[in-house]
Amino acid sequence: MKLEIGQIFIRDIQFDAVSRIENNILYVNTQELKALLLEDEHLASVDFEIAKPGEKTRIIPVKDVIEPRVKVEGGGGIFPGVLAKVEAVGSGRTNVLKGAAVVTTGRIVGFQEGIIDMSGPGADYTPFSKLNNLVLICETVDGLKQHAHEKVVRFAGLKTAAYLGRLAKELVADEVKTYETPSVKEGMLKYPDLPRVAYVLMLQSQGLLHDTYVYGVDMKQSLTTMLYPTELMDGAIISGNCVSACDKNTTYHHLNNPVVEDLFAKHGTELNFVGVIITNENVYLADKERSSDWTAKLVELLGVDGVVISQEGFGNPDTDLIMNCKKIEAKGVKTVIITDEYAGRDGASQSLADADASADAVVTGGNANMVIELPPMERIIGHKEAADVIAGGFDGSLKEDGSIVAELQVITGATNELGFNKLSAR
Amino acid sequence: MLIITNNQKVMDEADPRFERYFVEGKYEEVLLAVRDRIHKGHRLLTHPLSGSVKPGQTPYKSILISKEATELHLESLQIIEDSIRVYSTQTKNQAGYREEIQTAAAEDFREVDARLFAGALESAMRAAKPMSEYKEEAKL
Fold first, then answer.
1. Is pLDDT of A4 > 90?
2. pLDDT digit string, tens, across residues A178-222
3. In this structure, is residue B8 part of a structural domain?
4. pLDDT score of B131
């Protein structure tokens, strides 16, 4: 399967009477967009703000971040099974508004989390401070239950990203990258001497506010299965995960999975990237057993030499991670796991809720308990009262001047377990 | 199968086929109530650290264990002890402030705990009996 990603570099976003992309500037007609979004009867109002790199702006609480994309050639559409019909994606040509993102905020539940600072020390911890962000502030109709509320906000974000993506359908890309995955047989014949590597992508699937959808399927109800890596780039996986801001995978992360990107970069020279195995993280222990058995079985069936495993979330998924690692290693296949740490504020406690001697190659995304100080910002987008009840905050977190002293876990993407951040340890 | 919970919503709404025991106390006391039963030979059926809402943030916790007690199940003991350790690391220095949030958002915390737990109960009900009671059980 072969996909070309046409990148259109977006260096600014502005509101305007006509939505379009011109000279690498994204112009947005908010009236038109608002009318489209308000077709959802559960959405009472939606407001738009623009947040640019370097501004003294804080976005809070962040629900999801999504990169606008559009299918130009090839089967299916972006976000298949959700916004587009169920048809396999991942081949042909996709245009991407590189440097732009849609950020959703909304008061879904009373406990809040997820900060993006566009400047200052907080900005260094989140990749989204480097993007031109169109922020959606969604208010739903009264009386909506939490799960329905989450869905409304999720769809508003996806629809906005698709709307902006469509503006790039006819454009000539500034840069084109090509990604190709041969069949298992072709790959073995083409690269007989290269180690064969698969990627095990663990997806959050515990339930309310902890869900991930694959071609529209709720991942908690799926068995472990396989995807071509390029299917991710067309939005086959979307995030409904609103909890644990620092180490949840937003839809933006799924579209730009750095493990996929890096394995492709070495594909054909240092290794043979065979494909992506996706598996879930459920609450019931027998589900964990079944899913990790299945992961190890697929790894064995593919006959790969090595596996990279990434995790999503805190606590319970540590058990899935270790089960996957242990069972794959027991098949004689080497693993590297990517996780993050909750090692206490001093970093001295054990980092994970589970451990095993076979987990001897570990990459960390940083310690989520580390305390940071965020200076006050001139502009707050979203719900500023949320800063009072931010997860990762503590007694006296929010100072009178608007500065925040809190644990790193308050920042969206700070300790991302795909490695889409700068923190790690040696 | 036996539910151990401090969440009234789970007590009220969980499938009637499950027995339940209400813990008058905090998240930590639910963990300890489960640990005590594991010492007596009950097995853990759901992960104690369900949800990404951290201990010290949510006050509610619901855990499913086997109704029958047999011999000590070491894997269950390992998981509950690890969970108690994580609870203690994550709640250090968080006293006071959290209680305010916990009161303000109590209904949301109850709902998230209950919904995640209901998903686990659905999984549990798909088999004729808890997976832990099958003789050919895979090791955790």
1. yes
2. 999 999 999 999 999 999 999 999 999 999 889 999 999 999 999
3. yes
4. 61
Give me the residues of A, 216-275, that contact B with CB < 8 A. Answer: 220, 241, 243-244, 248
Domain limits at B45? 2-133
Classify residue B38: in a domain, yes or no: yes
Query: Tell me: the pLDDT tens digits for A237-269?
Result: 999 998 889 999 999 999 999 999 999 999 999
Alpha-carbon span A74 to B25, nearest angstrom: 57
The answer to whether residue A242 is catalytic is yes
For residue B88, the chain A residue with the least C-alpha distance is A344
User: How does pLDDT run across A99-124, given as a tens digit for each residue?
Assistant: 999 999 988 887 777 999 999 999 99
The alpha-carbon gap from B101 to the nearest alpha carbon of chain A, in Å, equals 6
Specify the pLDDT at position B12.
Answer: 96
Asked whether residue B139 is domain-assigned, the answer is: no
B140 inside domain: no
* A33 min Cα distance to partner chain B (Å): 31
AA identity, residue A321:
L
Q: A316 and B95: CB-CB below 8 Å?
A: no
Which letter does DSSP use for residue B58 in this model?
Answer: B
**Predicted interface score ipTM higher than 0.95:** no
